[in-house]
């Protein structure tokens, strides 16, 4: 119903405005979810235990969709096994100038240059206090005005304030839409940043998993550095991957817009990164696979490549909530062979 009835209507309007409209409808008219959307697939066989957390199923919602923790309970009701909020920054910021979100329909893709628009970590914390047992990941970043030399302080603030209210953390240094942010992926500053956060984490009575979200545009040598950094800092794992700067083989008119590209054009590369990290590290740490998952086949390929969990974003927008059920139903068919 979503692809044939709802999506054609939504896709006639500005993507960012549609996003806010959809949030309003799900928040204020929850009966529409029950009326028009499929009942989630639920089964004990879908449960996964990864970095010490129990997920009701391995299909999560990636960061960027519910930046300010406004709709995590309602989105969980669609069948997601976990919800990642953010990217959050210490101070509220408007993000980049509009227009900053573009559909590439012919490529089943999206380009965004949102720029960490969010209401700040304190606003999210107030909403997370109303959590009804949804497993939450907290994706954290730095404010645009904060120079890279002081970036660690922004991450520390977000970590400390979110700690009581999230189940795991994601350190985002891979967005292409905050100037110079990706420079923090270099080995020295990244090791220092993750080491600082892990030290704070280890001082807690019950430390929580810290993951690193990386770009798909890293070279093999840079990916080897990531493996070394994960081992050295002893963080819990990696999310592969964020959006790409590549525009290879795109056909949509809006392909030249600046920003991060997500969707089907990223399917192959994100899976390659997952496989590289898994094989070269000897499966030393869990990986959450994200990027270009538009079908159950795409999801299974990422799991077979070495991912322990997966996340949806652009595929969820194009394929709808039915995609969550499609993936979980296929996982149940081969539950005995799914890597854990």
Automatic annotation (TrEMBL):
GO CC, any one term: plasma membrane
Cofactor: FMN
Domain called Dihydroorotate dehydrogenase catalytic: residue spans: 46-333
Binding site for substrate: 67, 112-116, 172, 177, 242-243
Keywords: Cell membrane, Flavoprotein, FMN, Membrane, Oxidoreductase, Pyrimidine biosynthesis
Catalytic residues (UniProt): 175 (nucleophile)
One example of a Gene Ontology biological process annotation: 'de novo' UMP biosynthetic process
Molecular function as annotated in GO: dihydroorotate dehydrogenase (quinone) activity
Enzyme Commission number, as recorded: 1.3.5.2
Record has RNA-binding as a keyword: no
Biological pathway: Pyrimidine metabolism; UMP biosynthesis via de novo pathway; orotate from (S)-dihydroorotate (quinone route): step 1/1
The UniProt record lists the keyword Flavoprotein: yes
Note accompanying the cofactor annotation: Binds 1 FMN per subunit.
Residues annotated as binding FMN: 63-67, 87, 139, 172, 213, 241, 263, 292, 313-314
Described purpose of this protein according to its UniProt entry: Catalyzes the conversion of dihydroorotate to orotate with quinone as electron acceptor.
Complexes and interactors: Monomer.
PANTHER family referenced in this protein's UniProt entry, alphabetically: DIHYDROOROTATE DEHYDROGENASE (QUINONE), MITOCHONDRIAL, DIHYDROOROTATE DEHYDROGENASE (QUINONE), MITOCHONDRIAL-RELATED
Family named by the database record: Belongs to the dihydroorotate dehydrogenase family. Type 2 subfamily.
Protein name: Dihydroorotate dehydrogenase (quinone)
